[in-house]
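Morning, I've got a small favour to ask if you have a moment. The fold is given in discrete form, as structure tokens running alongside the sequence. I'd be grateful if you could look everything over and explain what you see. No rush at all, and the record is pasted right below.
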Amino acid sequence: MSNTNWTKEQTAAIMNRNTNLLLSAAAGSGKTAVLVQRILTLITDTTQPIDITDLLVLTFTKAAATEMRTRITSELLRLLENAEQEKNTLQAAHINRQLALIESAHISTINAFCQSLIKQYFYRIPLDPKYKIVSDESILYLLKQEVLSEVLLDWYSKNDSHFIKLSDMLANRYQDSHLRNTILSLHAFSQSMAFPKKWLNALHEPYKIESDETLSSLSWVNDILENSQLQIKSCLDSYKVILDVLNKHQEDFSSYNDCLSTEYDMLCNIASSQTWEEWQQNIITSPFAARLPAISKKKALYPENVDEVKKQITTLRDKVKKDFKKLSEFFKIPQTNWITQMNETVPLIQTLVKITNEFHSAYMERKQKENILEFSDTEHYALNLLLDKKNPDFNTENALEYPSDTAIELRKIYKEVMIDEYQDTNNVQEMITALLSRNNNRFMVGDIKQSIYRFRLADPTIFQEKYKHYANPKNPFNLRIDLNRNFRSDASILAGINFIFKQIMSEKALELDYGAAEALYPGKSTCTDKQYIGGAIDIDIIDKKDILPEQELPEEVKDIKRIEVEGIHIANRIKDILASGKTILTKDGSTRPVTYNDIAILMRSISTKATYLVHTLQTEGIPCICEQKDDFFETIEVRQLWSLLQILNNPRLDIPLVAILRSSWIGLDEQELAHLYLIKKELTDSISPCLYDALLQPHSIVNSKKKEKVNFFFNLYKKWKSLAYKEGVAALIRTILDDTQFISYVASLPEGTYRKQHVESFYQKALEWDKGRTTGLYGFISTINQLIKNNQKFTTTTTISTENNVVRIMTIHKSKGLEFPIVFIADAACQFNTKEMSQNALFHKTKGIGFDYFSTKNKMRWNTLYGFNVQQTLQKEMLAEEARLLYVAMTRARDKLIIVGTVNDALSSIKTWSITSFGRIPVKNNAYHQLPVHAVTNAKCYLDWIMPAAATSRSMQEFWNLASDIPMYEEDAIEKDTSFSLHVIARNHLLSSFFSTINTEDSSVHEENPVIAIDSFLNSSQTPPTWIENTLSWSYSYPGSVCTPSKISATMATKLLLETKEEEHPSVLLKEEIKPDTLPSIFSEKPLFLQEKHIIKEGSSYGTLMHKVMQFLDFKTIATTKESVQKAIQILTDKGVFTEEEYDSLLYNAKQHSPINDILTFLQSPLCNSIKTAQVEKELAFSILLPAYYFYPACEKEEKVFMQGVIDCICEKNSKLIIIDYKTDHVKNKKQLITHYTPQLNLYAYAAQKLYQKKITDLYIWSFHLGCEIAVPLQFFN
């Protein structure tokens, strides 16, 4: 960073002291670099020395905290090297001190900091220091439901009339799930407040209206009237367009003049209404005539235009009439009705609040009893720790004036409090950081335009208030610095972003004015390469309106999803970009050709769309990767494990037992299961016979090989059953996975990586359960069943990937903080999600609750007037967040931005957008216009903002050509470099393959009409038609490839090479039975259930652990002593490489098992000594295509199979390549390992030769069990 040329604003942010500083850092402005540099400047200043532990640095995520700590360490090491070279001993000593303190530095998330705070001061809360943090939402959900059931049971027994009415109102088909969800949602929302109880107890107040009050006297009614005025202004804008069309066609439509002008004047009169009474009086009578005068085409001067002009006018007028009718019905309701309904709602809200408060008390009591906390608890405990609530003058209004002794102590420690991503802070977190800081030592970094986490209860208004207040130059203790120079994106992208957001973003419409201070300014040099991809922002509109009539389209085309069509178009664009040799600008200023890795596709949501998009791109030959959340419990691989756990708990459950018998572990077919069922029916010695009883009968399984499998499996079953009583669920699952090699099995299946992640997620679920308040298999199964009954999802983030050089697909939220050379914003016409606005209870930080009125007589509910107010406020905030999401998406692009959206009718949409552009209004003191507020707030998707704003650029001539209208261009002064490129693509053009199938069908297939042919065939004994015979006798030409997987692992390939044609393929799931004479003495160590800690000593888990050690140990620098190895493992554990369980397992020392000694043996070996001077690469992943018949002899010669694997260690020395593979197998001699693993290592050699283009000279196995290297002959694929 020493060579960084800081801007004036960045320097001010780094050097300013003794003031609260708000750093408003726009996208790509280098805010993290500035924050790191400020920290470095503070802690390396020897004139006013500050230790890194004197700073409190709070980040939004753990990853951000880790990155910051890493950056600071790296810079300190560089500064130390400089100080030592300059022989500045004082500076070097101070930097060395900071390096020693870096691990103790308070750089963490706010949650982590709060946890450390309450652990340190637990005795002041008071709180049991042995508490556990429960992060598993499903466990917390069940606990909440359990507590809430007790609370509601008490209320049901009271026979309280208000509660009965509330439960009736929120009833859901005779169930109280809706009531429960409302209580839990209200409770969760209240916990984001610093003082939840105060906020809850005030919720009913807006609904309580005195008898002498009118609606006009209520301040919040003005918000409703303002929103109504925006709707009328929208109607007026449509009428301006109508009158403009009318003016152009006066010759034939002069008879419309009086009617339309009168309607326009009446709308203007309504728009001037100020009070509720005026609105009611002016709107009560419809201003619209029943119908417009008739126009005769015979008398018209231009008869060819009459129908089109008439359609334009009537379409717009009908829409206005429809919108006006909705609005007028709202004002036709008498004031007394609104007021009465709100007053009658007061006791329902008060009852809801009482229940919520009781639930909170009972829930906290239960958590204290079980000694558990959730993340929100840590924040509230920390806040209580920092406030002096015992002070008699304390009140919530001026709480910051009453810091506790703890807060005062901490203020003395922290010389500066730094908060990253400040725009995503909530009310509780804001108060905590304020109490920890003095009046002049808070450094807050963020960007209000990137606040996109309101759904996580972040409160962007905290940043907004300071953004306005800190801009005051008369306030020297509160300073705001704007970083708006963008060092990421091309100037044309920034110009386009500014052009759009200056027109759509205003405080009235989207909570923030986008002016000169908020605009982005280019900070990187312009690229002059002719092949550079930068330039205009592309807007690609896909038109769903097909040329062919709907009835003539194939069903496949009708049903094809919007995202699939966009996927085809994006794939075509990507192919064109790569084929044209376009280049991108690298960070060092040079250019290089575009690769797949440079491209990202961003979407608002990918939950239901990612699979379709990935499939479409793959079909088009575009490699891609996408992370998405799915329900792992619904997958076959997890259901198989779940069925096994169920029969381990109770073997008399027939359905789970059938699932296991039918599974790959045993593989009984339908006939064998039917045979078992018949035996079950014949059993008479049991009251309630089950399949398990039938299975115990002598002749339950006829096939001898299947019988052998069943017996072997149930021997393992007995072992697992015994383990289930002694170990936790996670340990049981881990043993099952080891004994069956289930992970290897699912990984070898199609989408194996995907399936493996599902199994691992299930294991993690069990691990969380074992850490929880109760343990045991029965409890785990009961809990899962309860969650399933309550429709809870078991979500996990899985990655759908094709290869390494890939296009990335992600949500806009996920992309925050990242950047990509080329960005596609897909699905831009997808409508905003407003489902949450239709809930019975809506919550808002300042407005309180929006609650429905419930009519006991009619058993119906509808919105109260205050409920409308809360709904409109939340709607406005939702739109503001959507606009910020669009800003985040657009600012991810470095070199090229392409926006893609699909509309039903492109020409119709363009005409609508042109009307919005028509209504623009000038911005005071600025040389540009903005879209009217109502046009912005009525937007339904991103294109409703982008298109009307972009249309005013002089580069959008195509837009106005399609709109058949006079261009409404903005003055060039708004943004000189703005350039957009509009493309409208017909859907049927993208789906031409479907149409070509229709037009070029082989007529020989339809020799006869199929319907006639079938009738003839059924009613006579004639020879079947040729087309039926051809269809029924068809067979695939490559039968061998059908039975051949497209992808295999190196492990599976090895097994296939070792198998002979004659013998039945052995199971890849069950290990060989361990012979009794190979087992250690049963008295050599304590049994597992008596051990204090679980030690990983065998199976694939132990192999994985040893491979992990060998991956992270530095062979070249580590000393060959036991202490050095132990220290190295301790350091890696502190860094999070090893878990505590893995650490304990590695340091375990017994006569027959000592991992440290095994590692030492390798480090002291000649093999290790020989590679200390070599170039070493570890855990080298590879993918390679091989002829399929190598492994599947029946497969056709031309077929290929895709093999993946990982080479443990590859060394290059003196132009020679050596491969080393680590094995933990318990074998008697070297020959066993050579025989079994020679094919595998030769496969590795073949792959390595392809990768390195060099010959492999030696292959070695290192056996930890035998403690020696074993040379493996080079013979396969060499």
About this structure: The CA atoms of residues 370 and 891 lie 47 Å apart. The radius of gyration is 36 Å.
